[in-house]
From TrEMBL:
It comes from Planctopirus ephydatiae. It comes from the Bacteria. This is Acetyl-coenzyme A synthetase. PANTHER family: ACETYL-COENZYME A SYNTHETASE, ACETYL-COENZYME A SYNTHETASE 1. Catalyzes the conversion of acetate into acetyl-CoA (AcCoA), an essential intermediate at the junction of anabolic and catabolic pathways. AcsA undergoes a two-step reaction. In the first half reaction, AcsA combines acetate with ATP to form acetyl-adenylate (AcAMP) intermediate. In the second half reaction, it can then transfer the acetyl group from AcAMP to the sulfhydryl group of CoA, forming the product AcCoA.
Amino acid sequence: MTNSGSIQSTLQETRKFLPASEFSAQAHISSEEQYQSMWQKAKDDPAGFWGELSQELQWITPWKEVISGEMPETRWFTGGQINACENCVDRHLTSWRRNKAAILWEGEPGDTRVLTYNDLHREVSKFANVLKKLGVNTGDRVTLYMPMIPELAIAMLACARIGATHSIIFGGFSADAVADRNNDAQAKIIVTADGGWRRGKEVPLKSAVDESLTKSHTVQKVVVVRRTGQQVHMQTDRDYWWHDLMSDVDPHCDVVPLDSEHPLFILYTSGSTGKPKGVMHTTAGYLLGTTMTSRWVFDLKEEDTYWCTADIGWITGHSYVVYGPLSNGSTVVMYEGAPNWPDEGRFWEIIEKYRVSIFYTAPTAIRAFIKWGDHWPQSRDLSSLRLLGSVGEPINPEAWMWYHRMIGQERCPIVDTWWQTETGAIMISPLPGISATKPGSCTRPLPGVVPEIVSKEGTPLEANEGGLLVMKQPWPSMLRTLYGDHERFKQTYFSTIEGAYFAGDGARRDADGDIWVMGRVDDVLNVSGHRLSTMEVESSLVAHPAVAEAAVVGFPHEIKGEGICCFVTLKTADSEGSDSLTADLIQHVRKQIGALATPDKIRYTAALPKTRSGKIMRRLLRDIAAGRESVQDTTTLEDLSILAKLRDSDDA
Ligand code: WT7
């Protein structure tokens, strides 16, 4: 386990917070009995439960069967036809909602745009026609590598409209990462921007795309949004400006009827090996999962102004900036830039300005807010807020309490939502109208989610025993495969525990039945709520000419949750690298993977501690990285002097 610090602190956490009765009275799920009966029905008769709920979506052809096949080959709503774009856009045009704001967008420099559902429909239809003109057909993959601008949501929905499968790559990833993902998905087109704004600087997206295209040859055309106005290279017959293409295109585009299981998107995420996994989600089940959880967990109402601060490049942005809330006809706030630009009060300024009522962010951000000081939120009017959410990593009780007091003003329920790229939608979370929340617990499973905490052998554990968090029943928004590697899909998620889904987290259930997720039990790091595999960083390091061997581990980091510590042995005789080599290695990893993989510590060592069978002793390295005196049995160490040396260098 990597998060042992938080296990300790949450074990002692006993505080409980009940929702205000006014909140409960108006909530979508407003009584314990209602939850219990929904949960039981979903468990006993999932086809009946989800079949009924499917009426919340607009179908083109009704489905024939709700669930077919056993996990992991479960298919949902087979025989049905549906279109996600139609559900998120067109169906809101028949009422007054047509002129309701769908997206309230704020750029980092302070420029703003409002798109009503009618505007969104027009822009999406136009861009769908642009894609068609560029040769994109139903089933083709389209890469989106964009800043947080409305065109990103427009491009996603345009893909969904014509059944092209989008593959979004977070703008913080490097050119190499873009090339790898383009190649794996065999993307035909890439949509990007000249750049985006981040802390007052231009993120050079188009030049990264240019570089990626020297290594990814399936991409035929590039569409470029002009955002920052910086100089970019435009290659004739390959690169096109978004505004040129949009200036002369039919604003009408019929939605394409798609099978329920039509691939909606691929999203790459880190696993415990070096190669990112292309998590594939399909249309109907994903849409139903995100639609219902948005309503249950965020208690979305017609008049809410909802802001999820995640970048659309992550699953949180896919599900809870775009598909979930728009399917519900909500108004979402979308912000382009950093939380501390031009100053540390930017988020609170946005909440005050738009009168945000639901705010969903990550523990790493909350810890940064705490550090920046209470005067920032205190100087803004946050009275519009009625619900707060947290996602991405276990939230430490101190951060939870600060969020509750300072931002929620002890009035707003906090939903600590546990889920994953693979689960598509929130799985375990308080329901804001009924749950007694506890700082650090994501509490109970949503209807349709049947978790269990088991030992490595698969035996169910008693209350308060830590074990593996698994899912015993399929749910509609679960991943269907890893793109191009169905074997790896089965192996990764369904081979650890017989008959169950397991994706890497450890957890315990307390005596009340509330779940406390303790963090990953595999070699996946959670850095600022972002997933990163230790092997990815290791293979990047060993690709550097000076490096012989590398071992990467996480360590507790005040803001990021987990920091990245790299133990490196060099090819030359000396075990100590110079400061300039350290800077060079850091740059090298950033260039190969992206800024999110920036190592926090590089430590040189003559050799890595290994067992007699040659396995790197990661647990030991984790203890050293964390500055903990290791209690591990080290008798299998190949060379005890290595351990002594690594410890000594700690004092340096
Ligand atoms: C991993 C999934 C989908 C959320 C964004 C991250 C950790 C996520 C929580 C939470 C404790 C959490 C888990 C999970 N995680 N939310 N509320 N409490 N841990 O998605 O990149 O697919 O990462 O994030 O370890 O496995 P992701």
